[in-house]
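User: Please fill in residues for this 453-position structure.
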């Protein structure tokens, strides 16, 4: 008997159970259904990824603004750092000097002085021409008083003491920003009757004290009322305050939600690299939109401020000072988005991307061979780097992203610095991997050395 022809064991139930073999038609139908299911699954993932990306892009500008509001309101040092430059802004200083000078001069009754002088001359029997001359002294005397008061106030405002008083007042009254955004009537910056006003009461007290010490006793009569400067009028201030309150509440979670949505959009899409490039490009476009919106709001704000209430240059300085950190954060995210999209493209199959990778590999290989010829071989370490190149590259990029995440308010300069360090580390690792000195590389090096004259 031929052992190769041993029959199959009988079925426990007594009947044969032969294995079914699919026919060609059945195999074709199976493959068709399998491809159809795969295509359907891929389309569902792409649709879900697109929805997540759309939500992330819509929320991105709001997340940046919300984080800026929450950061400025909750961090006293950050708030003081925001408003501190206003004390040294020439346009703002000029407004404060002019307003305080006008209020002091208004409380100096120059007409009463000239009237008293005229009466004294008349009682003394002075000639009529002399008495008439005393009446004409009112304008020069008022001009002299204005000049002296202006000079005294100017010395106070442009001094370092004013800068310290300004920063100290803002540090103690950090609730000013909260007042402006929520409509409370406390703090240095407050919202009242559809207008945002700056309280300069502490400055008025200091100037009044200096003037009294300088001999202007009338300065003691400077009233304690009307000690605010209107920064701007806003008919829709109530609606803006409601929006700001909502942004303040969402300031912590809205950025996190936006990042999670963007990450899910990349993860759920079948083409991760392409979706990463699209997401980074979309975020960059939204940051450009936010920068344009800030420029438009600046123009609207300047047009809403009457020149009689606040000079245009002072209004521009106030706006630019308050939003400069928001503008810096937006520019930083724009740069990060451009870098991320560029990295995603360089890892792709495009001809320019392949050319860049080939050039980098050739440069690293040449540098590694030069090290080997000089007797510096990395051995097992270099071979490990070669075998785990994807892991090491991903680790360096992840470390750079983590550094930016932990950086306190990163700027464009910080992004460039981290990027430069990451590129330098990747170059060093590539050269060390190329200097591993494998057997075939060593033979090629010896051949090249013999061929060198």
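Assistant: Residues filled in for all 453 positions:
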């Amino acid at each position: 008997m031929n052992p190769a022809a041993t029959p199959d064991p009988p079925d426990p139930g007594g009947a044969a159970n032969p294995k079914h073999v699919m026919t060609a038609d059945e195999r074709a139908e199976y493959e068709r259904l399998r491809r159809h299911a795969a295509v359907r699954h891929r389309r569902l993932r792409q649709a879900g990824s697109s929805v997540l990306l759309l939500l992330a892009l819509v929320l991105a500008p709001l997340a940046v603004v919300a984080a800026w509001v929450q950061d400025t309101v909750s961090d006293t040092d950050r708030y003081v750092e925001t408003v501190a430059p206003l004390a040294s802004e020439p346009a703002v200083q000029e407004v404060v000097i002019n307003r305080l000078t006008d209020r002091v001069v208004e409380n100096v009754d120059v007409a009463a002085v000239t009237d008293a002088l005229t009466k004294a001359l008349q009682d003394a029997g002075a000639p009529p021409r002399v008495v008439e001359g005393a009446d004409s002294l009112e304008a020069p005397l008022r001009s002299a008083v204005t000049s002296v008061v202006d000079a005294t106030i100017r010395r106070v405002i442009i001094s370092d003491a004013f800068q310290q008083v300004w920063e100290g007042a803002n540090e103690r009254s950090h609730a000013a920003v909260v007042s402006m955004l929520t409509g409370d009537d406390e703090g240095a910056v407050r919202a009242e009757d559809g207008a945002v006003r700056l309280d300069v009461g502490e400055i008025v007290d200091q100037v009044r004290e200096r003037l009294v010490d300088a001999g202007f006793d009338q300065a003691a009569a400077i009233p304690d009322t009307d000690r605010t400067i209107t920064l701007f009028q806003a008919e829709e201030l109530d609606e803006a305050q409601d929006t700001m309150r909502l942004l303040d509440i969402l300031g912590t979670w809205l950025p996190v939600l936006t990042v999670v949505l963007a990450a899910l959009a990349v993860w759920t899409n079948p083409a991760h690299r392409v979706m990463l490039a699209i997401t980074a490009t979309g975020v960059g476009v939204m940051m450009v939109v936010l920068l344009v919106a800030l420029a438009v709001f600046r123009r609207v704000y300047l047009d809403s401020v009457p020149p009689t209430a606040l000079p245009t240059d002072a209004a521009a300085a106030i706006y630019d000072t308050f939003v400069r950190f928001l503008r810096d954060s937006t520019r930083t995210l724009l740069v990060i988005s451009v870098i991320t999209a560029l990295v995603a493209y360089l890892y792709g199959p495009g001809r320019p991307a392949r050319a860049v990778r080939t050039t980098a590999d050739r440069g690293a290989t040449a540098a590694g061979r030069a090290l080997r010829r000089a007797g510096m071989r990395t051995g097992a370490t270099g071979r490990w780097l070669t075998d785990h190149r994807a892991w090491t590259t991903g680790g360096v990029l992840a470390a750079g992203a983590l550094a930016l995440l932990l950086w306190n308010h990163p700027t464009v300069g910080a992004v460039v610095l981290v990027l430069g360090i990451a590129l330098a580390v990747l170059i060093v690792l590539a050269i060390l991997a190329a200097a591993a000195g494998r057997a075939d590389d060593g033979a090629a090096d010896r051949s090249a050395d013999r061929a060198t004259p």
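For context: Residues 122 and 128 are 8 Å apart (CA to CA).
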